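Predict fold of Branched-chain amino acid ABC transporter substrate-binding protein; 405 aa.
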Amino acid sequence: MKKMISRRNFLAAAGVVAAAGVLTACGGSSNSTAASASTAASGAAASGDTIKVGVMGPLTGDVSVYGKAVVNGATLYLKQVNANGGINGKQIEILTEDEQGDETQAVNCFTKLVDEGITALVGDVTTAPTLAVAAESADYNMPMVTASATAEAVTYDAETDTVNANVFRATFTDPYQGVHMADYAYEKLGYTEAAVIFEKGADYNEGLAENFINEFEAKGGTIVDDESYSKGDVDFKTQLTTIMGKNPQVVFCPNYYEDVSKILKQARDIGMTCPFLGGDGWDGLEGYATADQLKDAYFCANYAKGSNSDFENAYKEEYGEEYPNGFAPLGYDAAMTVVYGIQAAEDAGLAAGDDDYKQAVIDAIASGTIDGITGTFTFDEHHDPVKQTAILCFDGETPVLKEMF
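Predicted 3D structure, encoded as tokens:
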């Protein structure tokens, strides 16, 4: 039976609370966007007719393109809930933090939000900060839904067979993506010889690469080469030249869009013509690579543009621009998941923020069905969503839906 961890123990929790007073200030500023937001921070989870919800992500820094999208998507949904009367008449007070893509800052931001009395958290965004916040959140049994962190360990420790009881995600996992793209390459595209290039030492990149390799070989395919590079590298021609010499039919490139754009350009510059495949880290690639570089490229994603015009139109109206990438709809669905749980706790008449309330939020999410814009989904025993995946290809430089797989 899977073990469920919610809190560690009283002494550990007390130690964290005591340590909170000596942590450096979080790099972002907390602000409320609810119509009835309090003008002063309060330790209470609910003040009068408001319920406090934290939303955090990297709003500045190298991965801010993801953080802004998640925070905007989540905030849009929470504002819509408020505009429709809130939760049983109570308005949601949205407290937003910028963790700058840094693990230490992420923990500081989470601690600050706890001190301000949140009942639940939408966040974090990328893997490493989310892992740090997930570990910290266990002390408080804080309901936490990440829109986009894909590492398996965010919700489940495979080594100890332990589920992080208070943590859920709206996106699929690294293992799922790697396996899924290997299946797609072998079964749908018909490739039997593949190569892989990935950033070493990064949970996301290594997780996808490892699972792609294992699944592709299990299907009967051959990995002719796997190459790695270090964080911060900008020249990939050595690895790509080696790969080209092995003559693969396809290259799996499970990296974030900044590196992917450089890899694709350099691959074409040295004469590589084979197709490339990727994971959801490719979301945001539009405008960073040319149509020639993206020819015959595919990646998996949670959402395809045009799937939900109501969301896309509302996003544009709220922020004055098109939604930037698939992380915005995931933020929207993560906030929807949090509200689903809060609604159950409010319906039960519990006191916002106390132990029973938080547990009611968690229990409702674990057993619930979310009718999200990235699909209708439930949660499995590891608190991961059960949902279909969009396979995107490129029409010129624009990602478009190829098929659901």
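The two ends are 30 Å apart (CA to CA).
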